[in-house]
Amino acid sequence: MSEEHLTDGWEPDLPVSDTLLRRFLFNLTAFHEVPAAAAGARTLRRDDFTAADLGRPAAMHNAATLLRPLPFDRPGDTLDAVEDFFGGGRGEAYLWSAWPTPDLRPRGWVLEGHPPLLLRPPGSQPPPPGAPPGLRVERVTGVAGLRDWERVAVDGFPYRELQPYRPRCWTSRSWPTSGCGCGSATRATGPSAWAACSWTPGWPRSRSG
Fold this sequence. Notes:
Layout: H1 20-38, E1 42-45, E2 49-53, E3 63-66, H2 76-86, E4 94-96, E5 109-110, E6 136-139, H3 142-156, E7 183-187, E8 190-191, E9 207-208
Parallel strand pairs: 3-4, 5-9
Antiparallel strand pairs: 1-2, 2-3, 6-7, 7-8
């Protein structure tokens, strides 16, 4: 008698739109892949995770994103593949997981935090109540806009290994100046960053996950 397969909701052939969390994970994957592809850097896509390595210190985009929970009885296979991808890298890398993981400290990873799942209304719908007055989100175009976006990212998060900020310390001359998916949030008082994170510099002994 054949056993019926019961879906767990994370099979690779499921549509991205299957759940809100699945949409979030694939959007996060694109967030990491697009800058890496624009810079001609390395990316990897598998059924269980994706990864991108800019090849320079910039931990936010040197990242692996789990596309399904780690197998509870053998998480090492996936983690080995993630670490092999980043072997010999420069700076730090993030491991993004939407689910609890085993204690990864014995492997050299350091817990960075528990970021929220952010939801933005699609299309032209107005922002939810509580948005700061004067907030404007616009697509980055042109060299000046790309430099503003880069400075906000480096100083706002902050990327300590890239400070003090210098133009092109994160991006490169090969990056396109439009169409690369960057966004800039501004207020009447000037550019502002909406979040902060920190980590201990160093690779491979300090990794954020």
